[in-house]
Amino acid sequence: ERSVPFKALRASSKFLYRRADAIVAVTPSIRERIVSHYGVPGERVTVIPAAVDTEMFRPGDGGAVRAALGIGGRFVVSYVGTLGVAHGVDLAITAARRLRQQAPDVLLLLAGGGAERKQIEKELRPDDQANVLLLPPRPHSGIPGILAASDICLVLLRDEPVFRTAVPTKMLEYLASGRPVISNVQGDAAHLLEQSGGGMTVRPGDSDALADAMLKLKSDAALRTEMAQKGRQYVELHS
User: What is residue 30's DSSP assignment?
Assistant: First the structure.
């Protein structure tokens, strides 16, 4: 049964939604929920998708960043963003451990801060240093350089119904940077990724599927190039 604070917040939301002259939703699923759950007339709710700065985030040469980080020519799989409870970055670490013997040149690069960062630091084992690199949080201006130094990028969220209405901003930044995306986010994010052609979606909570997707893209440079081009084209058209 829902708590009293939840019921109060829901009632307040319903009151505000029904009295608003216009409402902006950032994804179609959020619009649908507002209309169906709160009884708001559909003509009052407009979808305006999130956008990305295509000048700041654009394909680039990450050689200088690779040299500074000492990662050379390794195949870099990056997660750049919040390390929170919702994101399930431990899934990527499990996938990296599986790949340590199978594909030792794969490096999982994690950059960001958040509620789970200290827990991740505690759980990383000494042998993880072979193919997991945890960087300190970066200012927003430093993210394009990390993405340029990456071969593919990850968008991860735990499999909760609420996240099926979300399109993480980092996905758009990755696509704009011409980096193929592997995501485990269902719903609107999966639809966008399929529509753009800029990446692939794997089953939530499945570290083996995530590892297999990394290997697939690592072994197919032509597919990575195709995804990079399509992802960039998509955000240019929709931002």
Answer: H
> Do 177 and 58 form a contact (C-beta atoms < 8 A)?
yes
DSSP 8-class letter at 136: P
Give 62's contacts (C-beta < 8 A, 6+ positions apart).
145, 146, 147, 148, 149, 150
Which residues lie across from 128 on neighbouring strands?
A: none
User: Over the stretch 74-112, which tens digit does the pLDDT of each residue have?
Assistant: 999 999 999 998 998 999 999 999 999 999 999 999 999
Query: pLDDT tens for residues 182-200?
Result: 999 999 999 999 999 999 9
Scan for tokens 């990450």, then name that residue.
Answer: 62
Residues paired with 133 in a beta bridge: 109
Q: If 0-12 CB within 10 Å is exposed, 13-18 middle and 19+ buried, where does residue 158 land? A: middle
- Beta bridge mates, 152: 77
- Beta-carbon-side half-sphere exposure of residue 183 (alpha carbons within 13 Å): 31
Element (H, E) at 102: helix 90-102
Instruction: Count the neighbouring beta carbons within 10 Å of the beta carbon of residue 143.
Output: 21
| pTM greater than 0.85 (yes/no) | yes
User: Can you tell me the distance from the alpha carbon of 133 to that of 142, in angstroms, rounded to the nearest whole number?
Assistant: 17
CB count within 10 Å of CB 225 equals: 12
- Range 35-44, long-range pairs (CB < 8 A, 24+ positions): 38/13, 38/14, 39/14, 44/20
CA distances 21 to 27, 44, 171, Å, are: 19, 7, 31
DSSP codes of every residue in 59-76: ----HHHHHHHT-TT-EE
